[in-house]
Amino acid sequence: MTALTPRRAAIAIALLLLATLPGWVGNSYYINIASQILLWAVLALALNVLVGYGGLVSLGHAGLFAMSGYSAALLLDAGHNHFTANLAALAVTLATSAIFAVLALRAIGIGFLMITLAIGQILWGIAYRWASLTNGDNGINVATRPAPFGLPLASAGAFYYAVLVVFLIAVLAMIVFVRSPFGASLRGTRDQPRRMTALGFNVWLIRFLAILFSGFWAGVAGLLFMYYNQFVSPQVVALTTSAEALLMVISGGSGTLLGPIVGAAIVVIMKNVVSAYVERWNLVLGVIFILIISFMPEGLVPGSVRLARAGWQRLRWGRTASADGPATAALRGGLAPSREAERVP
Amino acid sequence: MSLWLTLAVNSIALGGLLFLLSSGFSLIFGLMRIPNLMHGSFFMLGAYFGVTLLWQGVNFWVAALASAAAMAVIGGLIERFLLRRLAGEPLPQVLLTLGFAFIVGDLCLMLWTGDPWQPATPDHLRGVVQVAGLYFPIYRLVIVAVAVVIAVALWLLVDWTRLGAMIRAGVDDAPIARVVGIKVSQLFTLVFALGAALAAFGGVMGAPYLSVYPGLDFEMLPLALIVVILGGTGSLLGALVGSFLIGFLYNFGQAMFPDLAYVILFLPMLLILVLRPQGLFGKVVS
């Protein structure tokens, strides 16, 4: 039997809370918010593979997220069943991710970001302007949710459990990925691309596969989002969605497993709370970006830890602790190591 | 026949506007390496400023110059007090400019509502000129003329003046430039302000033609991006050629494949990325 450490106890409590959530939350409005948090967390985890572990910042993930939602919605609309539609949608998303990767990997660092932004806007253009295919601004309605193993997902509670299962699989996949040799080599390409090349690794291929992996989970999140709303519209592909996903990763702390999940919770809760009082979500989003950059550039989870430690030390030693710990370098230097190999489009 | 000619004139005019937008982006992103995601916001906010002034009965050129000056001040302040602190850190710069872009977009929606604003073409720029039996709208020609004048002025400034030499030195090797007495930081603030002013000026010039509406910012930003990727980062000639290329592609695409016009815009960018990632006129960075 394994020993009970605080960490394991915390995970067990978290799992227990998640598993019983519909029971103690009660109101279906809050159950839906929990579903939203979990499905956005899947997207944030997917993006974190690139941002946190690959040093590749993408502002085009809304495109991949929406690609699977749109593909599935179109196939369902054409009369295919849920299984075929989902499978085909994921295949389409993987193919799109491959093209996305080939184009975006023509550059590293800021060039990569700019190309992903442009690709995201192309996909937005297709969703918004190609009205004969996508129904333009009106979007596509999805009549039903699937019933896997004969269990209908129509109610908020049932859908929550479906999202929870997918979320847990995604987290497991991320844990396996981070601990695998592949995860280690991806971190290697982030920190020392030249040395990795010299050691015989194919840096381009590692990054390419990481984008496929990330694109796949972005596609899974896109399917969940499509079924959650039973609707897709160009709003999903908007740059705001990519920016929100990036905010989740960075606010929680990129390059950690817990960070994007916490970030997703923060952003979803804030979005719902803010939307209840004011219409100005974009304004709030912008202010949060600027505040985070100014005060906690490494993200809320590592940032809070740093501030707490600094405060604790100040209490203990009665003098100012250094605020610029190694953690600060995490975000600030996020793109820096690749600078030597940076190629401009 | 006349349809194609109209399309061609519109394409050149749009190309001129795109150059006003992307020349500033080329200076800021291409030369200074600042990923300025609020460049479309400069364009939109400048256009709103200009439209408001025009509404008060201000002369068109005065409105355009005043809007450009206001945006130069705003851009300069953002560079001096926020972006400078993040020098050499692209990701925080991206988040900061993106944050500002969202704030500007939302504030504009709040102040100028969601309805499009389209000022009338100024009186003295209305009408058409007749050349060789063909009619050209004056306003479109004026846009092109302004773009060409600014292109020449920027080229002279960057390539042939002392100030331009100092800017290039600051970009190539900031520490050494500082050692020989060039005030690199001040120069960068100046260049950033100039880029913002050009975008705002373009916004006002474009207002009677494109109108101003919410979402214009994120529609223009990718266009600036495509132009710079096409032309090659930091190349003004590239920005000029790229702008006119995109102008033609947009108008002819819209006429022939209305559903896909926006997507067609990105095709040359994709081709360039695959075949010649440094852009048409870009230098290979070793």
Question: What topology does this entry show?
Answer:
The complex is a heterodimer of chains A (345) and B (286).
Chain A: H1 6-25, H2 28-54, H3 61-77, H4 82-104, H5 110-129, H6 131-134, E1 140-141, H7 156-179, H8 181-191, H9 193-198, H10 203-229, E2 231-232, H11 239-252, H12 258-277, H13 281-295, H14 300-317, H15 328-332
Antiparallel strand pairs in A: 1-2
Helix pairs in contact in A: 2-7, 2-10, 2-11, 2-12, 3-4, 3-5, 3-10, 4-10, 7-8, 7-10, 8-10, 11-12, 11-13
Chain B: H1 2-31, H2 39-55, H3 60-83, H4 90-112, E1 128-131, E2 134-137, H5 138-160, H6 162-172, H7 174-179, H8 184-210, H9 216-231, H10 236-256, H11 261-264, H12 267-275
Helix pairs in contact in B: 1-5, 1-8, 1-9, 1-10, 2-3, 2-4, 2-8, 2-9, 3-8, 5-6, 6-8, 9-10, 9-12
Which features does this protein show?
heterodimer; A: 345 residues; mainly alpha; ABC transporter involved in vitamin B12 uptake, BtuC; two-stranded antiparallel sheet; 73% helix; globular; B: 286 residues; 12 helices; 2 strands
